[in-house]
Structure formats: C-alpha cells, structure tokens
# Entry
Amino acid sequence: MRLGKLVTRSLLGMLMVSATLVAAPASPVPARGPGSTVAARGLGSTVPARGPGSAVPASDWRGGVGDRPEPWRPSVQEEWTGPAGRYCSFPLRVRVVSQDVRVRVLARYATGAVRREEYAGPLTVDFVNTHTGRAVRRDVGGSGLLEYRPDGGWLRYTIVGPAGFGFRPGDQHPRGYYVLDGLHVVSIDPAGTRRLTLGIGRQDNVCVALGDPTR
# Structure
C-alpha cells in the first residue's frame, strides 16, 4: 500500500474517533439518493432537503468510542443517470463494472437512527456521456465515513479515495462529478448545499474528461 494511502487511512481513523466526541448540529439536511459514491451509496447523490432537525445531547448517543461497530453487510451500487445540468452539461450515466462494497453502522442515536456509517470495498465504474456515447472507466473503490443528522439527513462525508462525489449548481464548489483521491471532507448545510471543507489529493472532474470545457 502506498504511503499516501496509509496516511489518509490513519487520518480517517482519527476522524472516526474524534467524531464520537462532538455533538451533531441540529440542522436539517438532505437524504441519501443517487450522486456520490455512496448514492447507490456513493455515486453522486441528489440529496433533497429534509425537515427541521433537533439537537441531540451527548448523553443520548449510542456508539461511543468503546462500542463495537455492527457487522459488515453488502452495499449494492446501482446504475444511475444524472440529467444534463446537474453535474455535467450532458446527461451523465454511471454504469457499474465490478463491485464488492460493504457498509457497517458505527454508531446510532438513541432512537435507533444511524449516526455514522463506514463504506469500503472495491468498485469500478464507467462514466458515460449519453449524448456522444463516450465513456471513461475509473476506480472509485475507496473508503468513506458518512455522518447523519438525527432526522436521517446527511451532515458530513469523509472520503479516503478514490471515490466519486458530485457538486451541483448552487453548491460551494465548481459544478461537476469528481473522482476524489486522497483525503476529502464534504459538508452539507441545512439548505442542502455541499461544500468541500478539506481537500488533500487529486480532484478529477470526469465531466471534463467526457467533453465539458475546462472551468
């Protein structure tokens, strides 16, 4: 394993531990959907806004530092297509070539709702410009830590790449669908706006590789 991978995985482990010590903000957020490599749990999630959330005191949490994660289970990634203008100027299709992705719950709220999930496992996909048929194949089989708000909306997604994630018009990052390699953290605000709060490593916009102009 490359030194960079070892460093980023170590940092992810530190983030997973530190996350158990900080209360989740009380803002509403989007739910899971197609568009990040967690969207069929990851490949681009369109996260619609949720209703208002409420603060959860630390004493109400399950899954502290000493608690055992739940068992790994399969997480099947499905093909999806984003319409023109969402990520690329053309409809972007994501077609699964091979996969063995797993997910496990690391912590739950007292209600039983998932608070943190970890994703890992190999995943190879083809990104396709449906207007031209042009395709590029990418490895997006990295690891991810997905943190949820009490209402089930997304709070933060920490990626040890390579993994895919999409930014739409109105997000606080240039529009595109990116393969993120290295350590990246995406935060989602109450309105559903995505923001890259930490980016260490490569950001490959596959929309450009498939024909969009360089921004």
